[in-house]
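In keeping with the milestone schedule agreed at the kick-off meeting, the structural modelling team has produced records for the first pair of proteins. Each record is given below as a sequence line and a structure-token line. The laboratory manager (R.T.) confirmed that both were archived under the project's standard naming scheme.
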Amino acid sequence: MSKNREQLIKLACQGDQKALEKLLLICQPDIKRFARRTCSTSEDVEDAVQIVLWQLYRKIGMLKTVATFTGWLFRIVERECYRLFKIRRSKNINSDFELDNLPTTNLDMDLKIDLINAIIVLPLIYREVLILKDVQEYSSPEVAAKLGITVQAVKSRLHRARTIIKEQINSQKISNI
């Protein structure tokens, strides 16, 4: 962090209104960039940015040290994106996977059956992650929290689960030829 920015944060923490306004302008692009990676929709990104800027404005005086500013700010963004995600998800409670809602042809039905069979025979550690992430649409941090594993483990298991399913479905296609 530059000396100029550190000084700006110090002044804003001490209640300097001009420094706070300048800090809000400087931080907005970083907040938006981080929110784009964290929020689930573009509407949530815009909402999160506005809420985070408001919280920064209101709570900057609570910051204990300048060195923790960036982590503190991004933690607020992360929490806000998660809160907005939960609100959006609760409005769309249709998170259950329903085969009956999908349009069907004979080929589609065969693929669905193969897919279900491939998921069923996945080892439990991969099946849990796949269902939570791809079917129930939980975020990686949520899946990690539910299963008591790291986000990296979630990503690794999800990748492995998808690879196993692809291999099984491709081998089914080859054996049916």
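The second protein of the pair:
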Amino acid sequence: MMDCRLGCGACCIAPSISSPIPGMPNGKPAGERCIQLNNENLCRLFGKPERPKVCLQFKPCPVICGSTTQQALANITELEHLT
């Protein structure tokens, strides 16, 4: 386990999310920024009850997140393509 890198946002950009997100009732396609991601790449829903379950369940780890935002984007994008 690891802590999220503040300002990374890769998990809010790279994967598709099929569940509704406030402002995105049909979820979001892979590679599209979540509407809830602010200009500093921080989630506006973090800690709020309306945050989607899939987002709550994501746990950052070195294998997925790597050591940079670019690595996280590449790793999550690859996983998205494989699933």
